[in-house]
Design goal:
The model has no long low-confidence stretch (mean pLDDT 87). The termini are far apart. It is built from 12 helices and 17 strands. It is α/β, with parallel strands linked by helices and 349 residues long. It has an 8-stranded mixed sheet with strand order 10-11-7-12-6-13-14-17, sandwiched between helices. The protein folds into 2 domains: 76 residues, 2-Layer Sandwich (GMP Synthetase, Chain A, domain 3); 250 residues, P-loop containing nucleotide triphosphate hydrolases (Rossmann fold, 3-Layer(aba) Sandwich). The longest helix is centred in the N-terminal third of the chain and has 18 residues. The relative contact order is 0.13. 38% of the residues lie in helices and 23% in strands. Helix 4 crosses helix 12.
Amino acid sequence: MKEKDVLKILEEVIDPELNMNIVELNMIRDIVINDDKISLTFLLTTEGCPLKEELKNNVVQLLKKNGFKEIKINLGTMKNDDLKKISSSLKSEKKEKEKIRNIIAVASGKGGVGKSTVTSNLAVSFKKLGYKVGILDADINGPNIPIMFGIKEKPEAIDEMILPIEKHGIKIVSLGFLMEEESNAILWRGPLISKAITELFEYSLWGEIDFLLVDLPPGTGDETLTVGQSLPLDGVLIVTTPQDVSVLDAKRSAYAFNKLNVKILGVVENMSYFICPENEKEYDIFGSGGGEKISKYLNIPLLGKIPIEIEIRRGGDIGKPVAILNQDLKSSVEFINIAKKIIKVLNVS
C-alpha cells in the first residue's frame, strides 16, 4: 500500500467540529509504510483538543481494518501558517454553505425576568420539535447561557474563526466565553461591546440551523441597537413578569424594536404564578395580568405563561434546562407550546 492509498482511506475520518475530513484539513503528515507496519504524524488544531483520543482511535481502527498490524501515531499541533490555511477554508465554507433560516432576539426591558431561562428552554423545545438550533448569548451584563447548559470549557478557535460548543444538540456561542473566570465582569464601553457581539455572530461557524436565538442584555442600550441594526432579525420575543414595573420596562423594549422595524413575535410572561409542590395550588406571587396588558397594548400575541417551579431553578443550576430535566412539568409543556406558536407566527415548515 502506498501513501496516497492511506490518505484515501483516512478521508473517512471526519472532524465533527469542523465538519471536514482530516486529510482535507492536512492533519496527516510524515507517513512511513513498511509492509504491515505504519507510522504517521497527526497534527491537531490545538494541543487541548477534546476530540483527540476519539480521532486517533478512528484512525487506528481504519488502518487495522485495512491490514496494518503495527501502528504508530505521533500527535502534534499545527503551526500558525497551517491554522491560517484552515481558517481561510472555513471562511469560504461559511460563505458558501452557512444557512441560518430564522434569527430571533430574546429581549426584556429590565433584568431578572428570566430571559436566559426562556432562551435556553425555547432552544431545547425547538430541538425537541426536530429543528436545528443555536444560541448567541449577547448578554454582556450576565452571560448565563454557559451555566444553564453546564459548559465549563472554552470554544475552539482556529485563527479568527470560532467553533460553537454543542450541548444537548444546540450550538452555543457566548460573551461569557471571553471571561477568564465565571465571576469576572466584562468592563467595556458600548462601542466595544457592540463590536464584540457583531464579530461573535460573523466569525462563528453556525453551519445550517433553523433557529438562532440571541439572548440580549436587558434594556435598550447600544447592544440592543447593534443587534437590531446589524443582525438580520426575523423577529423579537419580549419577556416580562406579571408586575407593573416589569410591564412598563417591557413596553419600552418593544417600542425600541418597533423603531428599528423589527417584528415583535409576541410576549412571554415568566414567573407567572407559583405552583406549590405540596398541594399543586397556584399562587400569584408577583401579581397577575402583566402579559395580557402588554399583549393588548401592543396588539401582539401572548405566547405563553411560565409558572415558577423548583425544577426550573434546579435545571439552571445543574446545566440541564427544565425542558430536558422533566418534560412533564407544566413549564416544560408551556415552553413546547410557545415554540409551536413561534413556528406558526414565522410560518416555518
